[in-house]
Each structure stands twice: as C-alpha cells, then as structure tokens.
Amino acid sequence: MIKSSKGSIAIIILLVLAVLTIKGIKSCRSTNDKTETPAVPQWKDDGRNKRSEWRYQPLEYTAHAKCRMQCRQISEAEVSEILRSGTINYKKSNLNDKPCPTYAIEGNTNDGQKVRIVFAACKTNTRVVTTIDIGKEHECDCK
C-alpha cells in the first residue's frame, strides 16, 4: 500500500511538471510569434465586441481615399461591401495607430478587383484612409 501511494505521488508530480513545461513552451512561442491576433483597440471595453462595432459607424472619406477610389474605379457601395464582408489583414493593419487604429480589409469588388481598403476605426466614425487594387498598378496623382 505504501509503494502504491509513493508511485501515485510520483506520477502526479511528473504530470504537474509536464503541464508546467508545456505551458512554458506555449508562453515563449506566443511572446515571440508575430502572427498573434492583435489586441482590441484601446478605447474602454464595456463588454461588447469593439473590434467589429466600428464597422457599423458612419463612414468618412479622406481626400486621398476619394482620389484613389476615382483612379481605381471603386465606388462607395463597393467600399461599404468590403467593410461589411471583407477579411482583416492584420499584417497590413496597425492597431496602435494614433489617433485611431487602422485596419486593412481585403475582398473583391463587384467587377472582380481584388482590393485592400484601409479604415481608421475612430470612436465616432470610421474613416476610409486609402484604397489599393492588389492585382493592378494604377497611374494616380494622389498626394
């Protein structure tokens, strides 16, 4: 009976050490992993998903975005559709941008253009910063 309890204690200790080792490895990987999902924007969290809430705020277009849209023949309706159904490219986004975090959202327009649209997720509105046609270079004079 004593041998059995010593064996059980040894197994428990080995399991605890294995769990701690695995947690330590995962912790090291997550701090060095650049593809980790970024944090939610810095404004106060009241329990709702702030990351998607900015998609439903009023849109404001910068002069640069309007110029790029005209040059690339991307309509406001297409911008809204990409905002609604596109995929966030976190490698091209910057959630630490000031004064508003920026999200690069990618998708296809009605005429088949593969685009990336950069949105600034501000507290009271969502600003369209620029539009990019991923598949084609355009000669634009937008400064």
Overall description:
With 143 residues, the chain is an alpha+beta fold. The protein folds into 2 domains: 1-36; 50-133, 2-Layer Sandwich (YaeB-like fold). The protein has 4 helices and 5 strands. It has a 5-stranded mixed β-sheet with strand order 1-5-4-3-2. A hairpin with a 7-residue loop joins strand 2 and strand 3 (102-108).
Give the arrangement of secondary structure elements.
Elements: H1 2-32, H2 50-53, E1 59-61, H3 63-72, H4 76-85, E2 87-94, E3 102-108, E4 114-121, E5 126-133
Parallel strand pairs: 1-5
Antiparallel strand pairs: 2-3, 3-4, 4-5
Question: Would you tell me which CATH topology of the largest domain applies?
Answer: YaeB-like fold
Biggest pleated-sheet summary: 5 strands, mixed
Order of helices and strands: HHEHHEEEE
Straight-line N-to-C gap:
82 Å
Q: Which residues sit in consecutive blocks of at least 5 with pLDDT less than 50?
A: 30-51
CATH architecture call of the largest domain: 2-Layer Sandwich
Q: What's the domain count?
A: 2
The number of helical runs is: 4
> For the largest beta sheet, what order do the strands appear in spatially?
1-5-4-3-2
Tertiary shape = elongated
| Multimeric organization | single chain
Rg: 24 Å
Beta-strand content estimate = 15-25%
Number of E-state strands: 5
CATH class wording of the largest domain: Alpha Beta
Based on secondary structure, the structural category is alpha+beta
> What's the average pLDDT?
78
**DSSP helix fraction:** 25-40%
